[in-house]
């Protein structure tokens, strides 16, 4: 099992069987994006660590940003659910 933590920049096809989400992170100074199927048997669990305040459904504009401009304002009143499994 390998952890992959980053910013979820898109979700496609909702919660259906064909649903997927894209996660972006910076690895060794290089931007890396991975697309995960939502209902894959290879995924053990999905955990939301923090939530940010954005006004877009797709955050593709973060690809062109660097440094502080690539940060997302965090939602402070977010309380994660406990005991959930994807």
Automatic annotation (TrEMBL):
Among PROSITE patterns, the record links this protein to: RIBOSOMAL_L19
Query: Keyword set for this entry?
Result: Ribonucleoprotein, Ribosomal protein
Q: Where are the transmembrane segments?
A: none
A single Pfam family, by name?
Answer: Ribosomal_L19
Gene Ontology cellular component list: cytosolic large ribosomal subunit
Q: Which residues form a coiled coil?
A: none
GO-annotated molecular function:
structural constituent of ribosome
User: Mind listing the GO biological process terms from this record?
Assistant: translation
Instruction: Supply the InterPro entries for this chain.
Output: Ribosomal_bL19, Ribosomal_bL19_CS, Ribosomal_bL19_sf, Translation_prot_SH3-like_sf
State the similarity comment. Belongs to the bacterial ribosomal protein bL19 family.
| Record PANTHER family | LARGE RIBOSOMAL SUBUNIT PROTEIN BL19M (PTHR15680:SF9), RIBOSOMAL PROTEIN L19 (PTHR15680)
Q: What is this protein called?
A: 50S ribosomal protein L19
């Amino acid at each position: 099992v390998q952890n992959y933590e980053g910013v979820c920049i898109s979700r496609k096809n909702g919660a259906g069987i064909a649903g997927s989400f894209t996660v972006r992170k910076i690895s060794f100074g290089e931007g890396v994006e991975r697309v995960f199927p939502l209902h894959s048997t290879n995924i053990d669990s999905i955990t939301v660590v923090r939530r940010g305040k954005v006004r877009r459904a797709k955050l593709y504009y973060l690809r062109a940003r660097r440094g502080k401009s690539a940060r997302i304002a965090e939602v402070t009143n977010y309380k994660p659910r406990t005991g959930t499994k994807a």
